[in-house]
Specification:
Layout: H1 39-49, H2 58-76, E1 77-80, E2 84-90, E3 93-99, E4 102-105, E5 111-117, E6 121-125, H3 134-137, E7 141-143, E8 149-160, H4 163-168, H5 173-190, H6 194-200, H7 202-219, E9 224-235, H8 241-310, H9 312-329, H10 351-363
Antiparallel strand pairs: 1-4, 2-3, 2-5, 6-8, 7-8, 8-9
Helix pairs in contact: 5-7, 8-9
């Protein structure tokens, strides 16, 4: 063959293909005559060893084809669980149709699938206790509007509304939800006093944080819906908890004393108003009585005057007798009638004094 005579000496097997003698530095196998085997001999020996074909023959080829078919089918058939949807991609572009629960088929590797959990998810931020790793413990530390540091623990309840946007528009959707919710909470807490966070307006804070978080996520086109923000706990940092509790107790005592003072003031005011109302009623009754008496006296005078006009003499005599009755009826008097012989009693006897003594002795 051509390569058997490439040596520089011109003789058969006197040199290698590049003119080097076979024994010059090579350690290759030698033929019985002292010459190295050529390529044609090597191929002939290989064909003789394998009997003129591959081991197993055509069954090896069939097995390889079946293995490839099984591998392709395993990658082309997929299942979707309840609470999930499958988003199929054809050459990297998402399909509009979503795969629901069950078995589905795609053409792999031209088409691939990504599964998305569309059930309600929860992300918890903060610790409100200072425990755990330092990185997680610092998530809930926030500065309030009245320059107080509060440790807030809250939960974000959210779900996937648009699976395609959820997979494509943001690299780390869960991390984005966490960061947006934490940013919104810090913004709201920074505008409010600490008392609103602890007890006064927790519901209002949760609603405002939900609205801000939803606005941020919509601006990124994440396809996520925030269903609820829950403030689980809010407390001062552990390092200043004792001092903060003292302040809280002082404020509670202040509120209690103010309530007691208002209650006492309302009691006094109610009593004063009651007495004022009673005095007004008594004055009205007295005024009504005086007016009625005056009206009655005037009517009686008019009646007497009418009788006087009709019979002046009789009226005068009657008025005289009534007046004397009123004058003499209230005074002490003693009537002494003359005896049959015309003799009287002692010209003067202190009869009123004697009667007073008699009454005193009777009472004793």
């Amino acid at each position: 063959m051509p390569w058997e005579n490439n040596g520089g000496g011109g003789g058969r097997n006197n040199g290698g293909p590049w003119g080097q003698a076979p024994g010059g530095g090579g350690g290759g196998p030698r033929r019985p005559g002292g010459n190295t085997p050529n390529l044609e001999d090597i191929l002939n020996r290989g064909r003789a060893q394998f009997g003129g074909g591959l081991p197993g023959g055509r069954w090896l080829i069939v097995g390889a084809v079946l293995a490839l078919a099984a591998f392709w089918a395993a990658n082309s058939v997929y299942g979707v669980d309840e609470g999930e949807v499958g988003v199929e991609f054809r050459l990297g572009a998402p399909k509009q149709e979503l795969a629901g629960a069950g078995l589905h088929f795609l053409i792999w590797p031209v088409e691939t699938v990504e599964k998305v959990n569309i059930s309600a998810l929860q992300t918890t931020i903060g610790t409100a206790s200072g425990s755990g790793s330092r990185a997680n413990a610092d998530d809930g530390l926030m500065l309030s509007g009245d320059q107080n540091i509060v440790d807030v623990r809250f939960a974000v309840l959210w779900s996937v509304a648009n699976p395609v946007d959820y997979l494509i528009n943001v690299r780390d959707p869960e991390g984005m939800v966490r960061n947006a919710a934490e940013s919104a909470m810090r913004e709201v807490v920074g505008r409010r006093p600490a008392q609103d966070i602890f007890r006064d307006d927790r519901a209002g804070i949760a609603i405002e944080v939900q609205q801000i978080t939803q606005t941020i996520l919509d601006s990124y086109g994440m396809g996520v819906r925030i269903s609820q923000i829950t403030l689980e706990n809010a407390a001062p940092p552990a390092e200043v908890a004792d001092a903060f509790n003292e302040v809280q107790r002082a404020e509670q005592d202040e509120d209690r004393l103010q309530e007691e003072a208002r209650s006492y003031a309302n009691t006094l005011l109610g009593d004063a108003r009651g007495r004022a109302a009673a005095l007004r009623e008594e004055a009205a009754a007295y005024s009504n009585r005086v007016v009625q008496e005056a009206t009655g006296e005037a009517e009686r005078f008019n009646a007497v005057y009418a009788e006087y006009v009709n019979a002046p003499e009789v009226t005068r005599k009657r008025m005289f007798l009534e007046t004397m009755e009123q004058v003499l009826g209230a005074s002490e008097k003693v009537l002494v009638e003359n005896g049959a012989g015309g003799s009287g009693v002692v010209p003067y006897l202190p009869l009123p004094e004697l009667r007073s003594r008699d009454n005193t002795s009777t009472e004793q």
